[in-house]
Amino acid sequence: MKINANTIRPGNVIEHDGKQWAVLKIQLIQPGKGGAFIQVEMRDVRTGIKTNERWRTQDTVEKLTTEEKECQFLFAEGDILTFMDNETYEQFTLNRDMVGDAADFLQDGMAVTVNTVEGSPIGIELPATVTMEVVEADPVVKGQTASSSYKPAVLENGVRVMVPPHITAGTRIVVNPSDRSYIERAKD
């Protein structure tokens, strides 16, 4: 299906130069002189090679239809991530590069949505929230109030997030994996 370049969104899969590309990031650039254009960072779904491409906003690109499968993350072995299709119980692997930053939040047994094009997995979508344990948190600075500032903390997976002052090491928190933001303290 042909779409205007200015409607491309991260997560879309497009066909360009005879290859299938997963869109990672987009940026609309409006120079002072001339027409606006869109800068797209994308990854070849077969080889994993990344590239950048620019289109004018009125250009059209071929958007491919993706199918979603409910799967379960089983385990990671180095950079190879193993998943299982919940319907067929078939196992398949993806390279960590193809999953991107979402791989940091994968937990054994986690239910994920795997996006496929023509039966080949091209990426995953995590649940909207993930519960993780804080392993390191800076001490509270005297005079800080909960409403005015957040402090840095490190999660069990090594990811740094900003948390309210009352969160300490050992606390389980709910995190949004897409933007790595603190949502709330986990209810145990």
The fraction of residues in strands falls at over 45%
Question: What is the number of helical segments per DSSP (H or I, 4+ residues)?
Answer: 1
Computed CA radius of gyration, to the nearest angstrom? 20 Å
The spatial strand order of the largest sheet comes to: 1-6-2-3-4-5
- Strand tally: 16
Overall 3D geometry?
A: flat
Question: What structural category characterises the helix and strand content?
Answer: mainly beta
Provide structural commentary:
There is one protein chain. This protein is mainly beta and 188 residues long. Helix content is 2%, strand content 53%. It has one helix at residues 96-99; strands at 2-4, 13-16, 19-29, 37-44, 50-56, 60-64, 67-77, 80-85, 91-95, 111-117, 120-125, 130-137, 151-155, 160-163, 172-176, 181-185. It is flat. The relative contact order is 0.13. The model has no long low-confidence stretch (mean pLDDT 87).
Blueprint (SSEs and pairs):
Blueprint: E1 2-4, E2 13-16, E3 19-29, E4 37-44, E5 50-56, E6 60-64, E7 67-77, E8 80-85, E9 91-95, H1 96-99, E10 111-117, E11 120-125, E12 130-137, E13 151-155, E14 160-163, E15 172-176, E16 181-185
Antiparallel strand pairs: 1-6, 2-3, 2-6, 3-4, 4-5, 7-8, 7-10, 8-9, 10-11, 12-13, 12-15, 13-14, 15-16
Main attributes of the structure:
188 residues; five-stranded antiparallel beta sheet; single chain; mainly beta; six-stranded antiparallel beta sheet
Summarize the structure.
The chain is mostly beta strands and 188 residues long.
